[in-house]
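Protein details
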Amino acid sequence: MDFDQSAVQNENSFFQEFFCFQKIVETAIRYWRIVVICGLLGVLSAFLLTKYVITPKYVSSTTLYAWQVNQLNDRDVLSSYRSQLMLVNMLINDYQELMTSKLVQEKVQKSTMEYCAKHDLVFHPFSVEVDAKRDTRIITITVSSASPDVAQYAAKETAAVFGETIREVLRMDNVQVIDEAQLPSTPSQPSKKKNLVLGLIFGLICGGGIALLLGLLDQTIKNADQASSYLKKPVVGTIPLIDKVDAQMTAPLWTFLKKRKYYELGEAFRVLRANLPYLVPESGKKPGARLLMITSALAGEGKSSCLSTLSVLIARTGKRVLLIDADLRRPTLHRIFDLPHNNGLVPYVAGVCSFDEAVCKGVGEEPLLDVMPCGPIPPNPSELLLSKAFSNLLEMVREKYDYVLVDTAPSLFLSDPMSILPFCDGVLFSVSCGLAKIGLLRKALAHVSQISQLPIGLVVNHYDRHGQYGGLRYKSYYKNYSDYRSPYRQYLSDKDEAEADETAENGGKEKAKEA
């Protein structure tokens, strides 16, 4: 019994890891236009098929009375009537087979072809159906054809040929026509209303299936609203995606902050900077120092670029910042800031170099920003992060800096971030739009939350503000407000404007020098 329960839990965890059913439904609803378009296409296809493709069928029918009761001379009238009725019931099946037999149908078809040739009509094949009412002597002959004239004439001719055949074969004259075949004015098939309804239903079903399939195939985060809703964590920053055509992606991300063209990128990081005091108040493990760690579920989610840019902006506010590259698997901060990586975190923890030798000071033209690169990649990264020297390092830098930002490895499959959690005041979790599945993000966040109750803030990276998921609102905002000097821009020359941009960007530097 325990084995069965564990198997069910493993199966449920597998589905939760790769599928988010709430995301599937919401994505399907978001694609409601596809459902509507498919429904309209279904109606249009049904209309075109009904009008131009499907051959219409006209139906004409005639009714026969298969026994004519003569005047009875017997004493027992009821007995004679019953005997005649039993005889009719026995002959009804013979009549049905006889009407659709080759003998009758060949005569009817030949006569119908002659009728069409005589009246200059196009001959269309027809089908004959015979229906005998139960416990009655009524027989209905129904003829279907693409031509109303052929249907009417074939129905009449079938009744006439049948009567003649009865007299010739069975030597009986007991068939009488009750209702003659009428010329049909409208086709019985196809039914336009029925086909339009079926086309609408089929189109809606196909559209709904396509929408659900799109939701099933795309299980990734697309914007900050989805990240907050599905991951149940607050979003402290949303970093827009830089177009590769316009930007030199080989350059560090923080170098774009000086360019007016990427003003919204700088504002996004400034919003993230403003939200950090609310995520981690000053009364942390030690007043006046905030130690934040950034991680992600998978590699390539932009955590290192985000943290390096954030550290530059914090340093411009006059705060002393130390950026530590604790990603001992794939370090990147030395490439972002173009630093030597002979010394750094690994040599310092190993006791090879001193703290001053391991730290690069005044990085990125920011006098208050210090960076400790990783150094040579060690063979035992988890053991180094659990060492006493590393914990002493974090305790020491709390006293020297206002912000200590630690870049770590992804937390989904590695234990490195869990070793640093006990020393942190808060966690920044990088989520790249369109990369990691929601189930994997939930699993990574669960690993972090199970070990520590630290506040976790989501940083949504690579947000496509021009994409399908809400880019219009983002674009319209910056169209009106990104140019914060628009009222008096016309009075500035190009040189004055460049000097104003430089003054606005370097305001924090002057404050840092005074401090």
Observations:
- Residues 421 and 452 are 7 Å apart (CA to CA).
- The chain has three domains: 20-53+191-217, 58-179, 224-482.
- Residues 192-217 form the longest helix (26 residues).
- Residues 1-12, 68-78, 468-501 have pLDDT under 50 and may be disordered.
